[in-house]
Amino acid sequence: MEFQQQYNLHTYALLETPANPLELPRGIAGKVQIFSCDRLSAIVEPEVSVEALEQEGDRLMQAVLTHDRVICQVFQQTSVLPLRFGTCFSSTESLQNHLKAHCQQYLEKLAKLNGKGEYSLKFTPLLPPEPATPSETGGRQYFLAKKQRYQQIQDFQDTQAAEWQKACLIATQTYPYATVEPTPEREGRIYVLVSRQDNALLLEQYQTLQQTCPHWEVQLTEALPPYHFL
Description:
Blueprint: E1 8-16, E2 33-37, E3 40-48, H1 50-53, H2 57-75, E4 81-82, E5 88-89, H3 92-101, H4 103-113, E6 116-125, H5 139-174, E7 178-182, E8 188-195, H6 199-212, E9 216-220
Antiparallel strand pairs: 1-3, 1-4, 1-5, 2-3, 6-8, 6-9, 7-8
């Protein structure tokens, strides 16, 4: 049976209708466009078949990366509400109806996010230092060294856990909008929503966290669209 492609109005992000033209990047298949409905607008790309993309893993992955790239490029010019990949509308009429129905809600969110960016603090646990290897491979001294090594690792990880909890406390007390996200790999991420004009203060806080958490590698990303604060 031949696959029937269904084309949709692929939607990247919402934004306040810009007063000046934006530089619009290329999207998944062509150049993206602005669809405006009074004070609210959407970044869209017509004739994108998500169903067709889902049939090919490589093309789907490339499309997801393109989706994020478009949002980031528009975000460099104005505040946006990023939408998940695959957010589609069957027609301009259905998109217009949606924007009209939720206009006030979206504008209030955009007002909250105006001028702000999402910064990610990534915490990667360091490995415990390697002790000197016992010269003996058996006997009492060898097993005592193994027991001490186990205790050293346990103490090191306990210290890491305490430092992570302290970092979370500092972040949530410092920033009104902060989200903590531990990962199965024992890594952790703290997302903060900060005015992009407060970079200097954020860098100071970043240095404080580095000093507070010597058992972690702490990395700070550049400002991204507010994915975790919608």
